[in-house]
């Protein structure tokens, strides 16, 4: 049984004067503990598909199942991490990381201890009583990750979570997130425009074409890279080979769209 099954997804956005098909006949599966990336040109429906998988958007046609159950019934099993950290500025860091537990009525001593231990593992011990404005952008994203993991989601959705950070912080967070998710055996989907990020962090990469969004090709990241940290994977001799392959495919898609 596949952990996540996406079957025959078709979605169209309607306005008063037009209809735009964002996704057409998208089917894919993700295994438990697997880290996959959605990559493709702008407008290929990556974020739309992520919203459908998360149960935030209902597709016009098609189904999504998590552990053989309709995703609409398993929303509490899904965590979402976005480009912006969306921490509440008037709440302390501790209050922010416990927010998901509070909303889901899981604010129990053992859960609180788990969340605070996560904060320490992320190198943020001692910031519990501080406010978001007192932390750097990278620290805030680590807090956002703790808040997401505190509810112990089975599936983690990452929608360009590093794109607003400087390059050095981005590379450090890639390693931290990758190592954390591997240690917890989490299943994750990353939406990104960055080919290098997709290769460095993923087991497989789903490349989408646009107008409408379709699954164009699936790349399996070589084992040699999957065994490295994202930072070290970028300097591995195999890295450039798969990077060039994906680049050529992506370039051909963008060229076709411009013709």
UniProtKB/TrEMBL annotation:
ABC transporter domain mapped to chain residues: 4-235
Gene Ontology molecular-function annotations: ATP binding; ATP hydrolysis activity
Pfam families (alphabetical): ABC_tran
Keyword Repeat: no
InterPro entries tied to this protein: AAA+_ATPase, ABC_transporter-like_ATP-bd, ABC_transporter-like_CS, ABC_transporter_ATP-bind, P-loop_NTPase
Span of the signal peptide: none
Database matches in CDD domains: ABC_NrtD_SsuB_transporters
Keyword Amino-acid biosynthesis: no
SUPFAM superfamilies: P-loop containing nucleoside triphosphate hydrolases
Alphabetically ordered keywords of this record: ATP-binding, Nucleotide-binding, Transport
Protein name, entry field: ABC transporter ATP-binding protein
Organism listed in the record: Cytobacillus depressus
């Amino acid at each position: 049984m596949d952990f996540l099954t996406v079957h025959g997804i078709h979605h169209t956005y309607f306005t008063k004067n037009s209809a735009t098909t964002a996704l057409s006949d998208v089917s894919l599966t993700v295994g438990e503990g697997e880290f996959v990336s959605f990559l493709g040109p702008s407008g290929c429906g990556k974020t739309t598909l992520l919203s459908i998988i998360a149960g935030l958007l209902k597709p016009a046609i098609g189904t999504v199942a998590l552990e053989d159950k309709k995703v609409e019934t398993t929303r509490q099993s899904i965590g979402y991490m976005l480009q912006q950290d969306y921490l509440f500025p008037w709440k302390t860091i501790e209050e922010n990381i416990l927010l998901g537990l509070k909303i889901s009525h899981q604010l129990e001593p053992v859960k609180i201890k788990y969340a605070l231990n996560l904060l320490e593992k992320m190198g943020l011990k001692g910031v519990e009583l501080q406010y978001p404005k007192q932390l750097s952008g990278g620290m805030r994203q680590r807090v956002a990750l703790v808040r997401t993991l505190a509810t112990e989601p089975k599936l983690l959705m990452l929608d360009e979570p590093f794109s607003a950070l400087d390059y050095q912080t981005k590379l450090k967070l890639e390693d931290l997130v990758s190592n954390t998710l591997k240690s917890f055996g989490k299943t994750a989907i990353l939406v990104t425009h960055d080919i290098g990020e997709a290769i460095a962090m993923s087991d497989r990469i789903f490349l989408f074409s646009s107008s409408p969004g379709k699954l164009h090709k699936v790349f399996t990241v070589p084992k040699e890279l999957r065994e490295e940290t994202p930072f070290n994977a970028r300097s591995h001799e195999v890295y450039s080979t798969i990077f060039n392959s994906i680049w050529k495919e992506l370039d051909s898609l963008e060229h076709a769209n411009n013709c």
